[in-house]
Amino acid sequence: MKNNAKAEILRVAAGIVSGEMEIVEGCRLLVSHLGDAGLRNDPDAITVVGFESETDNFPVGSQRAYWNPTALAAKDAAREAYVAAAGTAVLAACQALMAKLRTEIR
Amino acid sequence: MYDAPTHSYDAKRRKFTGKERAAETGLDYFGARYYSNGLGRWISADWSATPIPVPYADLTDPQMLNLYGYVRGLPTTKADLDGHGFLTKFKNWLNDGGWNEDKEAQQERQRRFHQRAEDARKSLSGMKNFTINGKTPAEFARGATDQQAIAGLNAATNFVFAEAQKNFFCGPGVSCGIAFPIGALGALDADAVALSKQLASQAQVGELEAGDGRIIFGGAGANKPLTEASRLVGEYGGRAADWVKISSSNFKAADGVSFETHAYKNVVTGQIVEFKTKFQ
To answer: What is the ipTM of this complex?
Structure first.
C-alpha cells in the first residue's frame, strides 16, 4: 500500500510538473495519498498540503458543471492569478518529491 | 424502590488500544458548549436540528413580530399566560378535538417508551467488561423494568465515554486519538468512532490555539502567498506577511477516516481565525 501510494504520488507529481495535470486538481490527488505514503511530515509534502488547503474553494472536475457560468469564470480568474503567484513553490515541491520517491522506489 | 445504577470497572480487564497517555492538550474542551467568534462555528452540535428563528410567531401576522405588543393592546379582555399566546392555542386545541388526540398521543408515547427500553436492553446486552449494580450489563438488562433499562443504558454510556476520555492523547508530534475500552461499548461501537472524531476535532482546535500548530503556507516568503491575505488584513488587521496558514496534527479514526484542522494565524499578534477541518 505504501509503495502504491508513493508510485501514485510520483505519477501525479510528474503530471503537474509536465503540465499534463492541472496543478490545483493534481494537488488534491497528491494530498489524498500522502498519509498512506508516510509523507505527512515531509517538508515538500507540507507545501503541497498548504497549497491544496488554500485552493480547496476553487471548483475542479465534475463539480464545475453545477456552477453558474459567471461565478465560475470569476473563480477561474482568481485561481489563475493565485497559481501564477504560488505555483512556482508547488512545482519545486513536486520536483523534490519526485527526486526522493524515484530513489526510494528503485 | 429503584436504585440508580452504579458501576465498577475491573482495571485488569481494561484493554485499551495502547499508547501512553500524552500531554492532555485540549481536555478543557470536553463538555464545553459555546460559540466562538474566532472559530466561526459552534464547538458542539446544536441540540435543535432545525433552527427556528421565531418559533412562536405566526409569520403571516405582522403583529406577532411586534416585541412591544401584548395581547394586541386589549389587556382588559385578553391575557397571555405564558408569553406565547397560551389561551388562544388552548381554545384552538379544544376546538380541534384535543382531548381525543391526547389519549392517542398518550398511547403512542407509551409505545415509544417501551420501544426505547427494548433498544436499551439490546444495547446493554452487547456491553461487557464492567458491571451495573454488581451484574453484567446483559444480566442487568434481563431483569430491568423499562425505566431501569433506559436509565441503565444512559448511565453505562456516560460511564464508558468518561473512561475513554481519560485515555485521550494528543500533542505536538502525536496524532490525536482516543482509546475506548475494547468491547465495552458493544453495539455502540459506531457511536464510539463518531465520538472519537468529535473529540479529536476539538483537540485539534485546542492544539492550534495552544500554539502547537505548524505553518504550512504563507508568511513572509514571497513564493507562498495566501489566497485571501488581503481579505484577512481587511477583516482582522495586520499586514499580509503577518498571516500564515497553520495545521494541527492528523487524526485517523478507527473507520479509516483521516483529518486535520487548518486555520489562519497572525504570527505577530497570535490571533487564530477561520478553522476548518480537512479530510484526507
So the answer is: 0.93
Which of A84, A36, A103 shows the shortest CA–CA distance to B250? A36
- For the record, the C-alpha cell of B240 comes out as 499580509
CB atoms within 10 A of CB B7: 18
Q: Which residue of A has its CA nearest to B251?
A: A35
Separation between Cα atoms, residue B132 and residue B151, nearest integer Å: 11
Q: What is the pLDDT along chain B (280 residues), one digit of tens a residue?
A: 444 444 444 333 332 322 222 232 232 233 333 333 334 333 333 333 333 333 343 434 444 333 333 334 444 444 444 445 556 666 666 666 655 556 777 788 888 888 888 888 888 887 777 777 778 888 888 888 888 888 888 777 777 776 666 655 555 555 555 555 555 555 456 666 777 788 888 889 999 999 989 999 998 766 899 999 999 999 999 999 999 999 999 988 878 889 999 999 999 999 999 999 998 8
Give the residue numbers spanning the domain of A44. 2-105
- Give A93 to chain B, closest Cα distance, Å: 12
Q: Which residues, 6 or more positions from B79, have their beta carbon under 8 angstroms from its beta carbon?
A: B71, B87
Report the alpha-carbon distance of residue B261 to residue B151 in Å, rounded. 36
User: How many independent structural domains does chain A possess?
Assistant: 1
| Contact predicate B207/B25, CB 8 Å | yes
Mutation target vs B (from A40, A54, A57; most B CBs, 10 A cutoff): A54
- By CB atoms closer than 10 A (0-12, 13-18, 19+), residue B102 is exposed
Chain B hits for A78, Cβ within 8 Å: 227
